[in-house]
Amino acid sequence: MNWTSQLRHSVANDVRHRSWTLFVYLVLVVIATWTATIPQDSGLAMSSWPLLIVLLGMVAIASIVQGDSPARADAFWVSKPIRPSAMAGAKLSAAIALLAIGVAGQWVALVAQDVPSRMLLKLLLSSAESYGMLLLVAMLLSSLTGDLRTFILAMLCGAVTLIILSSLGTAMTWLPGASLLRFLGPVAGLSFVGMAYHTRDNPFRVRLAGACAILCIWISTLASNVPPGIDATLPASVMRTPLTVAFPGMKEGARPESGPLSSRLALTLLLSMENAPATEHRILTSHQASVILANGTRKALKLGGGGGVLSRGDSIATSYPVRWLNSGFLLGGGKTQVSAPLDEEMRNALRDGARSVEVEGTVEVWKGKGGAMVALQKGTTLAHDGTRVRIGEVNVSPSAMRVLVTVTEIGGAIDTPWSRWGLSDAPRFALVNAERGEAIALSKSGGGGGGLGLVLPGVSTMRGSYELTYNFEMRSRGSPTLDAAWIAGAKLMMIDWTRVGSYPVKAEVAAPK
Amino acid sequence: MTIEVRGVSYSYGTTHALSGIDLTIPDGTLCALLGRNGSGKTTLLQILMGLRRPGTGTARIFGKDVTNLAFEDRASIGYIAEGQPLPGWMRVQQVIDYLSPLYPTWDSALAGTLRERFELDPARKIKTLSRGEQMKAALLCALAPRPKVLIMDEPFTGMDAIVKDELIRGLLESSGSEGWTVILCSHDIGELEMLADSVAILERGKLVLSETMDAIRDRYPHTTLRDVFVAVAKREVTT
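ok -> structure tokens follow
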């Protein structure tokens, strides 16, 4: 038998050996996929599928590896004319098959979620990377252990160790070329499996290599968490409106709060962006502040909060002319406050005469656009750009209109201001009556939780029940009251947000005297 | 020479299992490897199978270092060891079906004959077989490829006397007619006396005797192999 024949022979033997486990795994993936593609009133029930699939997949690959253990010198296969590389290849093939089955289910679930094709491959790769790494860890630990019980014990110990290590380390942004380290884990893990099947009679060396491989996988996991860099580009046609910074409620240069600075615990800054175009959202991100002392040196302030909306558009673009009956896009006033705690050293520095306070950051520019629509009826479902919406109830009372929806959202399916910067108040839904050419933006309340994924991990999902509300009493002056005929002809519309670009900003204000 | 061991030493940590072993087994002969528990017999056989790498020295089969044997050569070596686990989830016939494609010389007729002689039910799972029946299945797996070299570590463990006799008779016939080279380690010294062409005795990791049966009979007339082994072990005879 040549190498490939031996590999096929071993794979067939593994399939016979673990046929029931593989069958159950397949059934689990099919059920998870089916569950992910049907409308759900309670999406939270789905969140346990990826965990079950991952655990069963890990146990399956561990039992397949241990069926022809590389760790035992007296294993049945070692005295038979089978090439170790063919045996290792067979085990890797089994892992790839488990991965492929899971990824196929994930693909079906993502397509059912209407994830844009440009993001589909990225999300599938993300799932494959996460699940593949877990399977590799299972192969690694099962290569080092002699039976399933020891393997499970090792997995538990490994999980605890990784949790402790993860609390010590964060994303490796400090390391140049960190993204390349993502490949370190898979390469080390695969090399170890190959080595374990080749190396006999040296358990110390195998265990040492196993420990090194686990370390590499951990480093690789940290490297995977490196956030993407901010793309600071903006089309020339978009205005680079400057940022202004002031102390709230006080004139520039005045003391921000009553009393001496040495008794203040925090310094509050008001950030705003005047005269920004009304067709865009502008969000300040990754902002930093510092105090410039009299001698020119800087002292950094630790700003709280994750950013803020600096300006809002008053409408969104639709494919046909629509008159907006409310000002749903103008919430918040277009200003944001940030504050920084003042330690004693900083208070003394301000008291001795600081020159100014400087804020710098990046402004993200977003534009809203009318997206997919669905009839406003109970039970109808809309899947659009990675978000599935199911209408639960439509209630109209004299004071307000309420639409109860269940939303399942794929994180990272599309770039949205709320998914990227955690801003949940950007309007997502509107009611549109195309015949009358009128629309209202709906405010959203309610909540949900994160899920582990659809079929596989590696793709974050958010599921929740929300109430979309339009308060008749809060309508704009002069707007007509929505009657039953208006509501009957209305459709629920999702709002697409497109990132136009970003640009750096810097603003300075004289320090309080 | 089919099997040639030169200066082989092996240690488990700080414990020396084998020290400077020199052993030669000519083609077509059956060598009985004797020794007390812990004398290094199993370690030596595992080194010959390439399952352990010698600390020093070399072990050769077919003139090639056992650590670098080609797979065609490895397919010509049969190995049975007491305690070596068979895949318990497989049925007897599945083990046969799994192994047969791996060996170019697999003799299905011989496998069938051995299965019938050992009264092994092909539909029974290995894990449901008794210890003796499992050794029979292991023997079947080792003999059916008609190996040129057979390495056997306590192959008669758990076998009933009738089957043991049959097996010994079969081994004698096969090693004679097919020119098998056999190295066999067993505590059944009486049985080995019938089978062996040569005897090697290990004592505390050292080879203390390696002679043909004819030479032993000439040196120690009217003495059984058991007595010779006991005397050597007690260092009552010079080697």
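Residues 161-177 of chain B form the longest helix (17 residues).
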